[in-house]
Specification:
GO molecular function, one term: ATP binding
Radius of gyration: 44 Å
Strand content: 15-25%
InterPro entries: HATPase_C_sf, HATPase_dom, His_kinase_dom, HisK_dim/P_dom, HisK_dim/P_sf, PAS, PAS-assoc_C, PAS-like_dom_sf
Catalytic activity: ATP + protein L-histidine = ADP + protein N-phospho-L-histidine
Order of helices and strands: HEEHHHHEEEHHHEHEEHEEHEEHE
Distance between the termini: 130 Å
Largest sheet: 6 strands, mixed
Organism: Thiohalomonas denitrificans
CATH topology of the largest domain: Heat Shock Protein 90
Protein name: histidine kinase
Number of strands: 13
Shape: rod-shaped
Helix content: 40-55%
CATH superfamily of the largest domain: Histidine kinase-like ATPase, C-terminal domain
Strand order of the largest sheet: 11-12-10-9-7-13
CATH architecture of the largest domain: 2-Layer Sandwich
Length: 419
């Protein structure tokens, strides 16, 4: 008997230490932990539960949970407790709870689960309340930040759209300016066939019914066709830019561009020489925009030749690695070193007041850049202005349709003076 007493004492002491350890663990938890029996009386109540409710441990043990109304409501009320004691685990919706002791509001998550004995029967219920206030604040801050970011993105998209519209309007304005500067040449180009038409029609009137009258009317029709084609080209160029990035056959495009400016250059006695590499692959570009860029460069070259003894423009193009390079070079005085850094700036111009918008080169560089290309000034001091366009070439082989289009244009423009 004497040997059993120390053993029982040791067991009792061990159990006491385990209870103390368990109690310390419960009290050191940041979560509220409590337990209740089948009579809905509190059997476990840790320190965080005291801070949450203001009810200390001695007053909580054995007390009915329903006698702490706000806490009882927070944890789901009698219905939730009965479901747990029937064997169901619950996770209640997160709730806001004012902690009177601390004078703060907290956002809490409540978990309720049954506690079973060795036989599997539910002997009690366990509740855990987790404070997620800090996480909710972070979440709300993130949501607020995302909302502001979305608002900023919306404003940015609207600004970019407005900027794109403004750029399109500027580009369209430059088109109109370009057409205006070519008015003299266009008038001259139309006056010649118009005089021819008048002459042929007059002859047919004076010789009605004769075979030669029919021939005269046929020639008049040809001259009207020339006038129609020129007007059609001018109207096509004047339309607002549309379309996407496509494969553009350069010889065909250059031929069309030269047909727009040809009459004006002829009046001003400016010669244009072309040197295009044979078999030049199509380039990836917006056809209308690239035509506007080429026309702007040709008009700048034309203006630079005013008063020069030799008036000549050379247009060259060749394939280089994954790109096609186009150069427009004139025999004018060139671009002074002091302004080379500024020539692509909007509204910068060397022309007299009222003779230029200062937007031609700026718009041209923007249009080329939008297609993934580059526009730069590469001329050396002492030579005329030389502008270089670098564009992506088409990846696959030139199609038969492009070959058919190019054959005539290449034959005319590969090498030689066009105007």
């Amino acid at each position: 008997m004497n040997d059993e007493r120390p053993e029982r004492s040791e067991i009792t002491e061990q159990l006491r230490r385990e209870r103390e350890l368990s109690e310390k663990a419960l009290n050191h938890s940041t979560d509220v932990i409590f337990a209740f029996d089948h009579d809905l009386r509190i059997t476990v109540w840790n320190a965080p539960a005291e801070r949450l409710t203001g009810v200390n441990k001695p007053h909580a043990w054995g007390r009915g949970v329903a006698t702490i109304p706000r806490f009882f409501a927070l944890t789901g009320g009698e219905a939730s407790y009965r479901r747990v004691l029937a064997g169901e685990s619950l996770r209640l919706p997160e709730a806001r709870f004012f902690i009177e002791v601390l004078g703060v509001e907290a956002v809490l998550e409540v978990f309720l689960t049954p506690l079973r004995d060795a036989s599997g029967s539910v002997e009690a219920g366990l509740g855990i309340i987790h404070d997620i206030t800090r996480y909710k604040r972070v979440e709300e801050a993130l949501q607020e930040h995302e909302a502001k970011l979305q608002e900023s993105n919306t404003r940015l998209s609207r600004t970019l759209e407005e900027l794109r519209t403004a750029q399109e309007q500027v580009a369209q304005t430059e088109k109109m300016v370009a057409l205006g500067t070519m008015a003299l040449g266009v008038a001259h180009e139309l006056s010649n066939p118009l005089m021819g038409v008048m002459g042929f029609v007059g002859y047919a009137r004076r010789n009605p019914g004769s075979p030669s009258a029919g021939e005269a009317l046929g020639k008049a029709d040809q001259e009207l066709g020339r006038m129609r084609d020129l007007i059609k080209s001018m109207l096509g160029f004047a339309r607002p830019t549309e379309g996407e990035i496509t494969d553009v056959p350069l010889p065909v495009l250059l031929q069309h561009t030269l047909s727009l400016i040809g009459a004006d250059l002829k009046v001003r006695r400016v010669e244009v020489e072309t040197d295009l590499e044979e078999g030049l692959p199509p380039v990836r570009a917006n056809r209308s925009q690239l035509e506007q860029v080429l026309l702007n460069l040709l008009l700048n070259a034309r203006d630079a030749l005013d008063g020069e003894p030799e008036k000549r423009i050379l247009v060259r193009a060749w394939s280089e690695d994954a790109a096609v390079v186009i150069e427009v070079n004139d025999t004018g005085p060139g671009v002074p070193e002091t302004i080379r850094e500024r020539i692509f700036e909007p509204f910068f111009t060397t022309k007299p007041l009222g003779e230029g918008t200062g937007l031609g080169l700026s718009v041209s560089r923007t249009l080329v850049t939008e297609t993934g290309g580059e526009l730069s000034l590469v001329s050396a001091p002492g030579e005329g202005a030389r502008f270089r366009i670098r564009l992506r070439k088409r990846d696959k082989a030139v199609s038969d349709s492009y070959r058919a289009e190019d054959e005539t244009a290449v034959a005319k423009h590969t090498r030689g003076r066009s105007l």
